[in-house]
Amino acid sequence: MHKDLVAALDIGGTKIAGALVDGGGRIRLRSRLPTPAHEDAETVMAAVATVLGELSRSPLWARARAIGIGSAGPVDASAGTVSPVNVPAWRDFPLVSRVALAAGGLPVVLVGDGVAMTAAEHWRGAARGCRNALCMVVSTGVGGGLVIDGRPHPGPTGNAGHIGHISVDLDGDLCPCGGRGCVERIASGPNIARRALEHGWLPGPDGDVSAAAVAAAARAGDPIAVASFERAAQALAAGIAATATLVEIETAVIGGGVAGAGEVLFAPLRRSLRDYATLSFVRGLTVAPALTGADAGLLGAAATASRIARNTGSARTVGRC
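Below the sequence we write its predicted structure tokens.
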């Protein structure tokens, strides 16, 4: 069994997670710190360096052959820079070069967090064995990534498949990205809750106004909560069907906190897909919940790093879903 490892970083607005991961997708060592998201750029980088330092002090570090980074975006993999919306001090921050310096010159590869989740699901999750897939994170935002011809397709900058900013309502609300009627503006957790509140939904005695609370109300039969999830499902279905029409994906894998609503989301999503995915070559499109959970960012970063580090024999043959 091959002994090499890769290092992985999962960088977001709330946490900086690191891991050493083996060729079977097993996490051998972890490190994690809160993201000092509202501090200056060097303070954030210092937290990344601390996480890397904890990994590098392990005897396992000697087996690390590359580092993969999955970061909140936008990212620019071609330039090695990141500008996460939720880390204001990092604008065109040269993350790849700084991580390479902190890690002693190991090869470093960067992708957006949606692409990382996609790589994880294709390697160890619900898209395993798929030649063409869309994987999505539906949470406080909506991100995604593509698998095309059996390989994750990050695109030139590491952002390909960012379905959250496809417009599905030409006269819809203005999105923070500058567009109108984006999938994210309708289907993200905060927007599901916003829509329910605007239409008269009342939270319970605990005052919880999260999407999870709206999901609980929908499961209990609240018609406004049900309608808010149906609207979100419709937006997701329109975006998924558009993507399938362009690149002939076979399955859409959905993770993130909103996917935790279960059939409250997936049942209307499957119904709406029948309305939008009507052409003969997309009618067989399936939808599945993600399987890699909270480790998706780390596993996806590791999968991406493995591709630049690997000199081991032939890769697993990838078939259809």
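The first strand starts at residue 5 and ends at 11.
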